[in-house]
């Protein structure tokens, strides 16, 4: 088997082929692959042609149930794929995971192969609800999406979680795919099973370019959805501006994702997102009820600065608890954010619904840090209801 592979790689003449390759027509390697699988994977056009002409079975599958066409499509060997199709290879055969050659071509961003396969395949074959267009929206570029749409792929077909290809493209930051799908008429407000629209998905993942394309395509800013932010049985209703910094997934985002969320935040603010709106049904939830409070709760100083710079009021109380932004920063131990809020004139004597001042909520272990923060400030005026602070 190995000797035959070396002969194929060397570009054999007909005599060498007949002597070393043809006698091993039924031989298998450790993966259960034939020499036809090997030639297709390596893009050996002449070897594939010789084997087809001499009786090698086109749809023989290896132990992963992949045929030679699967391997040629995955590797982007368009000429080999064309020879296999012309010889009668089945373009809709599925491997052990349910993937067809078209699926693998989309996952590998093989635009030429997708253009070849799409008109010949069942475009609606799905794996966990994901069709070829979903996979292109996740892994490929706009050219692959265009080829699938031109071949008749359904724009609004949902996957197993109710997500359309546009939703998947937005989540994965494929702004070019988002634009291509919108240009072909994809519904910008199509929700998944949880009610999230593509704009929510883009903001949650910090995909600023996708968010901007969606806004240009008519995505609505204030559409609320249900998102579980805690173990509470109640689910607050959040608009797209909230996932730009919240912990919807339960974990704080990494630096790159957070930078993207701040860009999304800027795009949403520019488009007119409400900075002081509250979410109905959120008053009994442990999640904060104002966007500024959500940014603090999520631990995102850049988002806090962006909201304050856009005009968010640090003194606006939460309808649920009466807490101000400084209360939230102190309760969550965010010294860095508390400093930002204090520079905006936040009052240290403001009380929440239970009569507590912000620094009353500081955990004992963090009191030295907050005391050091206060030591850096000095009062310049102290009327009965106002305490103005500046940093020295």
From TrEMBL:
PROSITE patterns: ANK_REP_REGION, ANK_REPEAT. Keywords: ANK repeat, Repeat. Gene3D superfamilies: Ankyrin repeat-containing domain. InterPro entries: Ankyrin_rpt, Ankyrin_rpt-contain_sf. It comes from the Eukaryota. The keyword Repeat applies. ANK repeats lie at residues 31-63, 64-96, 128-160, 161-193, 194-226, 321-353. This is Nucleoside phosphorylase. It comes from Paratrimastix pyriformis.
């Amino acid at each position: 088997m190995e000797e035959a592979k070396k002969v194929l790689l060397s570009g054999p003449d007909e005599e060498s082929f007949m002597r070393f390759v043809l006698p091993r027509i039924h031989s298998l390697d450790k993966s259960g692959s034939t020499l036809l699988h090997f030639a297709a994977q390596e893009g050996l056009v002449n070897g594939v042609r010789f084997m087809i002409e001499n009786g090698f079975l086109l749809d023989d599958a290896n132990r992963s149930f992949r045929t030679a066409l699967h391997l040629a499509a995955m590797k982007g060997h368009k000429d080999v794929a064309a020879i296999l199709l012309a010889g009668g290879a089945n373009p809709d055969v599925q491997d052990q995971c349910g993937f067809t050659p078209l699926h693998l071509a989309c996952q590998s961003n093989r635009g030429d192969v997708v253009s070849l396969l799409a008109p010949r395949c069942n475009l609606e074959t799905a794996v966990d609800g994901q069709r070829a267009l979903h996979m292109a929206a996740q892994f490929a570029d706009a050219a692959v999406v265009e080829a699938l749409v031109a071949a008749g792929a359904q724009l609004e077909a949902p996957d197993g979680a109710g997500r359309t290809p546009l939703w998947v493209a937005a989540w994965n930051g494929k702004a070019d795919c988002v634009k291509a799908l919108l240009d072909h008429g994809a519904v910008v407000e199509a929700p998944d099973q949880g009610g999230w629209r593509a704009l929510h998905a883009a903001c949650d993942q910090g995909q600023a370019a996708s968010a901007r394309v969606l806004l240009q395509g008519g995505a609505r800013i204030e559409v609320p959805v249900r998102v579980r932010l805690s173990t509470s049985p109640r689910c607050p209703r959040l608009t797209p501006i909230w996932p730009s910094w919240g912990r919807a997934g339960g974990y704080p985002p990494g630096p790159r994702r957070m930078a993207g969320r701040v860009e999304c935040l800027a795009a949403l603010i520019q488009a007119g997102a409400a900075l002081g709106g509250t979410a109905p049904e959120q008053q009994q939830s442990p999640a904060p009820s104002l966007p500024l409070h959500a940014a603090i709760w999520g631990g995102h100083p850049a988002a806090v600065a962006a909201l304050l710079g856009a005009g968010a009021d640090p003194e606006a109380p939460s309808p649920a608890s009466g807490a101000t932004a400084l209360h939230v920063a102190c309760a969550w131990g965010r010294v860095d954010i508390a400093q930002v809020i204090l520079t905006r004139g936040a009052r240290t004597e403001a009380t929440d619904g239970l009569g507590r001042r912000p620094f009353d909520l500081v955990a004992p272990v963090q009191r030295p840090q907050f005391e050091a923060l206060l030591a850096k400030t000095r009062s310049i005026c102290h009327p009965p209801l106002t305490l103005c602070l500046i940093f020295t």
